[in-house]
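Help wanted!
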Amino acid sequence: MEPFLFVDFSRCIACQACWAACRREHGGVSRLHLLCFQEAAVPLACRQCRKAPCAGFCPEGALVQEEGRGVKFLEERCTHCGLCAAACPFGVLEIVPGPVPDLSRCDLCRRRWEEGLMPVCVLTCPTRALSLDAGGAVGRRRRAQPAAFPVS
Amino acid sequence: MERILVRWERCVGCRSCELACRVAHSASGDLFSAVLERPAPSRRIYVEQADKTPSPFLCRQCEDAPCVRSCPTRALAHDETTGLVAYEPARCIGCHGCVMACPFGMIQPDVREGFIAKCDRCKGRDRPACVEACPTHTLVLEKDFLDLRRKEAVRNLVQSGNPV
Amino acid sequence: MTVPELHQQIHVDPDRCLGCFACASACPEQRITWDDREGNRRFRAPAVCAGDCTRCRDACPADAVRLEPMGETAGRSWEPLSWSLPLARCRRCREPFTTQKILALLSRTLEATVGLSAGEADWPSCCPACRRDLESRRLLDAARWNR
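Answered by r_m:
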């Protein structure tokens, strides 16, 4: 199954640990966006879309869907034109300004993946609101606890 | 749309509905060929244990559905004519938003037709495969449910020796 | 007067230019610059480039850059190039975030790839920050049942 960062909002306690961990891992720029509201926070990161609009909009084919590994960024093909950022429906693909604008996007900690490690945000989350299991376990929990859904 | 009602007290957890669902959503539509299909056909109904009681769970086809709200490309939309939450694979970008949004865990990623597996009430079939397959009649269509309830009530009255 | 053959005159077709910054990012000397001001993305480039590279031309996704080898200087324009494209404002916060041309191209691409016609979804006309906000509200709204 294709991996993506599954966020279980019912578990998020807005502690910002994922954001801090991501920032530390990726040299001071967090690829995970944390949107704080009055009584909740939403961690947003690249959703590794299967038919990704960013990949479809890239004129150089620098963003491709890699089987079993989400959307891959091929840096050598990138011309830093910034079109991908305009196409992302969730605003989680960003251009970091600079002489050569850089792409900032969650790649599920690819470097760590190659070493067999989990993304830092998943490891850091104290309530396991973040996971990589494509909703399998979360779906099971949601189905098995019908009492947890108050009927209003 | 006719709703599928679950008489969960009857469920024995045999998973016949899950199997029937997989076969109904396989390429061949036949049990023996479906077993060999790769990727394996996906199910859209789930039998789960809740408080030691098994029960089938199905997409509720919510009126104000969280999955429809979370879809950025309107691949999931409420169909006015059928009353179903309809999935249009051609419009789907596979962003997994609906998977995260469904409060019942009824949408799972898929690799076959489109990018998600969600109950479509067996398009083109008279009765959904799960309802047909259920040996204990846990899963029943709305009108059958009312029929059965009435018959049950009458039987109880007769048995108690106080016919109306 | 003749100049070395390596000199090239830069031609930019503003009608083809989308307003991305691939050329500016590609130039090793950073001779092509751009800024967003007063509702326009304004580009500046020298008329003549002394380099022998073709990176700006190769990077352009719209084939708007043409390089012409310079043999003779007579009749050549040395005026620096300047062209601008109107910016698109975010529907929610009114901040400019990309050019109108890029947004129109996105709209056409979405129509062709997923059949999403203009105005059917709210996010394409919003800036990345507002898209994040919209998305998080949508997801929180969905999660209101199991909070």
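OP: Thanks! One thing I noticed: Confidence is low (pLDDT under 50) at residues 147-152 of chain A.
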